[in-house]
Amino acid sequence: MSNTESSVSEQHKIRLEKLQQLREMEANPYPHSFDVSHNSQYILDHPELIKEDEQELEEVERVSVAGRIMTRRIMGKSTFFNLQDSKGEIQVYIRRDDVGKENYNKVFKKLTDIGDIVGIKGYVFKTGTGETTVYAEEFKLLSKTLRPIPIPKEVETEDGETKTYDAFTDKEQRYRQRYLDLVVNPEVRDVFQQRTSMVQAMRNFMNDKGYMEVETPILQPIYGGASAEPFVTHHNALDMKLYLRIANELYLKRLIVGGYDGVYEFSKDFRNEGLSRFHNPEFTQVELYVAYKDYNWMMDFVEKMVEHVAKALHGSTTVQVGDQEIDFKRPWPRIPMFEAIEEETGKDLYGKDLSELKEAAEELNIELEDSFGKGKIIDEIFGEYVEPNLIQPTFITDYPIEMSPLAKKHREKEGLVERFECICNGKEIANAFSELNDPVDQRERFEEQARLRADGDEEAMTLDEDFLQALEYGMPPTAGLGIGIDRLAMIMTDSESIRDVLFFPQMKPEK
To answer: Whole-model pTM?
Structure first.
């Protein structure tokens, strides 16, 4: 056992003893509720709450606050401590003569620890140093903690430098114990508040256009709408295999068939793939489908919505990401995929057959697998040579048909489809099509995917007979879009890893 583990175990034992003492005193360490009237930020933002010297106590507005004790300075019969709630921290002053001798001496001083959750009722005043402080007239323990909170400690060295000890900075532990991360590193809360604001801005933007937010199945008998491996489960009552959805595209298109002009869904999707800085097997995306539109219209829409999001979060179209300043101001560059590849590699791959593509990939030192078809090879080359260099938001358009079995054929260019991806900060954040609504063509594409799967491509799509039947009833021309919420949040919050924008990311099991 390490020294840290030994220390925690000892403190855990001591706190259990304190808990027992509280119960023996009939001081309930876990009461059912506490009436809170104000939060720390509100008090700090409203100086009219502060008691003036000439005011009588009867004239002063009372406040009731609750939160964790984060630091305290005991001075005999009185104590200053910092209380942290959901909005920040505020100082509290508590005296034995105000809250009662037993409550102060036994409960507060001896049986309460840093990290405990307490409730305070009193009034607001300013100390001699000018700090806004809550004067405690009542004190109540609301939750006794049995494990110590890892509060960082700052110590000044003999050289005058300030050193921090016991900071909760280990990334992996922070992800595994996000609840502690939020307590000890409150700036992390800002990231998730921005993520929520981002989603709300997108939702408001689409609602204002008249599009309807919907819900579609997570458990699906046939997975589709993307190229990915699914998670498999089993329904006992029906005795059938089901899949966690990899996308919600095919169900949303069914709603367009049903007569809606625009539908969207913020969806949890699941892909049975590896973990990385940009990948979590459970992720969030928003998909939008709008009838009678195409991918050119959708590019305009994405520009407008993401520009709106940047302004809503940052008051500007520019966002600082690491050492890069990314500008979401419209218009964004639009570059056909094969032109982008040729610009970076010097190789024109348009119209090349499988053997020519393999030869080009080998010359570019791209590792190939026997199961790779034309689309997969082109995708590997693009991912290696083009995508990492696209920092400012850029539309890559006109993909090969082999890569896009759900997109409509290009109206002018043979062998291509009307598809775009938005690349930003070196990664895809959005994918969109002029949706394929020809049921005969769609069936042929699915059958080609089945051949690729038979040849070993485990990410090839499966044939969905019910979806094909829906198309046969007629789907109008439609533009479809998917935006990765987690990746967009990484950019909007200047976060290095997808784990930084997920409350509870998937982690490898601890040894």
So the answer is: 0.91
